[in-house]
Amino acid sequence: MKNLKNGSGLLSFCFLLFSIFISLNAEAQKKTGNEINFVPKNYQQALTMAKARHKNIFVDAYAVWCAPCKQLQKTTFKDQKAAAYFNKNYINFSIDVEKEEGTTLAKTWGIEGLPTLLILDQNGKIIANHIGYVDGAGLLEFAKEASAQ
User: Fold this and answer.
1) Helix-helix angle 80-89:136-148, to 10 degrees
2) DSSP 3-state helix, strand, coil percentages of the chain (rounded to 5)?
3) Tell me: domain 36-148, CATH 3.40.30.10, correct?
4) Residue 117's beta-bridge partner residues?
5) Are the C-beta atoms of 121 and 147 separated by less than 8 Å?
6) Which has the closest alpha carbon to 68: 81, 77, 58, 59?
7) Closest C-alpha among 85, 101, 103, 69 to residue 37
8) Dihedral angle at the C-alpha atoms of 68, 70, 74, 75, nearest 10 degrees?
9) Pairing relation of β-strands 116-120 and 56-62?
10) What is the pLDDT of residues 103-122, one digit of tens each?
C-alpha cells in the first residue's frame, strides 16, 4: 500500500510539472503573437541571426527617459498586425543608445533623435529610418516602404 501512495504522489507531481509547462508554453505563445519580440541580446547576434534566416533587421533605438520610446513599447509594439508582420519578416533588435554598445551604434547610425526606428539589411546597412513615435499602422507602412526600396 505504501508503494501505491508513493507512486500516486510521483504521478501527481509529474502531472503538476506538466501542467506548469503547458501553462508557461501557452503564455509564451500568446506573448509571441501579441507583441514584437526583440530577441537578440547584442548587435552581432542580430547580424548573425539575420544572415542565417535571410531576414532584414528592425532596430528600435531608445533611451530609458524617452517618453515616446515608452509609448512605442506600450502601444505600437503590441499592435497585433504589426507584431505578426515584424515577428515573421524581421530580426527585431532593441537597443538603449545610452548604454554599452548602444552609444557606439548610435554614432555609427547617425541617430539624432529618439525614438529612432531603423531597417537594416543583413550586413547592417541602413535601408530606412524613422525618427519619433508612430502607431501600429504607421509602423507597418514604414516597413512596407522599406521593403519596396
Assistant:
1) 30
2) 60, 15, 25
3) yes
4) 60, 130
5) no
6) 77
7) 85
8) 20
9) antiparallel
10) 999 999 999 999 999 999 99
Q: Which residues, other chains included, contact 31 with Cβ-Cβ below 8 Å and sequence gap of 6+?
A: 37
- Looking up cell 533623435 gives 113
What is the domain partition of the chain in residue ranges? 1-34, 36-148
For residue 51, which of 125, 118, 117 has the smallest C-alpha distance? 125
Element (H, E) at 57: strand 56-62
Residue range 14-69, pLDDT digits in tens: 454 444 444 444 444 444 569 999 999 999 999 999 999 999 999 999 999 999 99
